[in-house]
Amino acid sequence: MGRSLVQAVSPAGLVIDRITSEEEHLLIVAHPNTADAACTACGEKSAQIHSRYERRLLDLPSHGRAVHLHLQVRRFRCSNAACVRKIFGERLSANIASKAARRTLRLEVIIHQLGVALGGRPAARLARRLMLPVSRDTLLRVVRRQATLAKTAPIRIVGVDDFAWRRGQRYGTIICDLERRRIVDLLPDREAGTVATWLAAHPDITVVSRDRGGGYGQAASQGAPQAVQVADRWHLMENASAAFLEAVRRSMPSIRQTLSSTVIDPNILTCAERIQHDGFLRRQESNKIIKDLARINATRRNTSNVDHVFLFYLCCPSSQQVGPQPTSGCRASIPA
Question: What is the CATH number of the domain that holds 185?
C-alpha cells in the first residue's frame, strides 16, 4: 500500500527508486519501467544496454514544494546491423515528457493553461504562488509553441480585415485563424475578387468575421457562400460607440435647454464641477448677447459700436456694466 502511494507521485511509466526531501524541493530519482526501446533511426527494438545518463525534469509541486525528477535513462545498441545509428538514447513515453523537454507533460499543460488565461506577467505571478518556477517569457514561449498550426489542420473560423502597406496609398488584407489566434495569410490588396478567390480555395471555412463594410461581405458571399458572416467585436463596438455619440450630439440642444432650466446650487459642487458650471454660464450669457445683437437692425456705424461693446464684454466678463469704453483692468483698448 505504501509503495502504491509513493508510485502515485510520479507520472505513469516510471519506477521510483528514491525520494529525498530537501528544504525547498522534493527530489525523486526514478527510471522507466520498460525493458527495451525502439531505435530512433530504423525503429527496431533492442534490449542491449550500452550506458546510462541522467535526465532532469520539473514536475508538479507537492506539499508546497517544487518537485525535481532525476531520471536514469538508458542508451541502447541497435541490433540492426544495417542501421546507420549504432547507439541511440531511450525516448520517454508521450505521457511523461517530450523530446528534449525540461518539464513533464502534466506540468507543461498547466503552464500552457496559465499563459492562455492570464498572459505573461499575471500568469508568472500566479505561478510563483503555486510553486511553479516559470518566468513570463517561458509562459509566452509555451503558448506560442502550443499554438503552432499543423499543416494538415483545416481552417474553419477566419477573421478578415484591411491593413496599410503604406498609409493613405496602398492597403492589403489580413486573414487570421480565430481558433488558433494566428495570422494565416496577407493578401496584396483589399479587392473583393482577391479575397473571394482566397476563400474559395478553403472550402472548410464555416464562419467569416469581418467589418460591416460591403466589400468583404460581397467577397464572403462569393468565395464562401456556405459560411456564416458575423461582425467582429472591435467593429461592432466602434460602430455602436459612433452611433451613441451621434445620438448624443443631436440631443445636445434639448440637453442644454434642460440643464439651463435646472437650478444648481454652487455650494454642493466640487472645484472642478464649479469651474465647468461657471464656464457653462458664461457661454450661455455670451450666446444670449450674440442672439440679441443679431436682432439689431442698425446702421453700419451703430453695428461697429455694438461690436466694440461685445468685444469689451468678452475682455472683461466680470464687469457688471457694459459700455463702449474699457476700464483700466482690461487687457485691450477699444476705440470710441
Answer: 3.30.420.10
Domain check: are 58 and 11 in the same one? yes
Residue with cell 525493458: 35
The answer to the question of residue 264 being in a domain is no
Q: Are residues 53 and 187 in the same domain?
A: no
Place of cell 525534469: 57
**Same-domain check for residues 26 and 140:** yes
pLDDT of res. 53: 92
Query: Roughly what angle, to the nearest 10 degrees, separates helices 271-295 and 300-315?
Result: 170
Check pLDDT > 80 for residue 11: no
What are the CA-CA distances from residue 319 to residues 30, 279, 288, 291, 292 (Å)?
Answer: 92, 16, 16, 20, 19
Across the range 125-142, mean pLDDT stands at 88
Final residue before a domain boundary, out of 231, 255, 271:
231
The neighbour count for residue 103, using CB atoms within 10 Å, is 22
How many domains would you assign to the chain? 2
Asked whether the beta carbons of 114 and 126 are under 8 A apart, the reply is yes
Helix (H) or strand (E) holding 193: helix 192-200
Whether 122 and 25 share a structural domain: yes
Q: How far apart (Å, rounded) are the C-alpha atoms in residues 217 and 113?
A: 35
Q: Residue 175 falls within a domain, yes or no?
A: yes
Residue 83, classed as helix, strand or coil, is coil
Q: Are residues 17 and 129 in the same domain?
A: yes
Residues 6+ apart with CB under 8 A from 219: 160, 192, 193, 194, 195, 196, 199
* Model pLDDT, residue 331: 44
User: What residues contact 273, with CB distance under 8 A and at least 6 apart?
Assistant: none
- Rounded to two decimals, the pTM is 0.47
Ramachandran category for residue 197: left, alpha or beta (phi over 0 → left; psi -120 to 50 → alpha):
alpha
User: Checking phi first, is residue 13 left (phi over 0); if not, alpha (psi -120 to 50) or beta?
Assistant: left
Torsion of the alpha carbons at 32, 38, 40 and 41, rounded to the nearest 10: 160
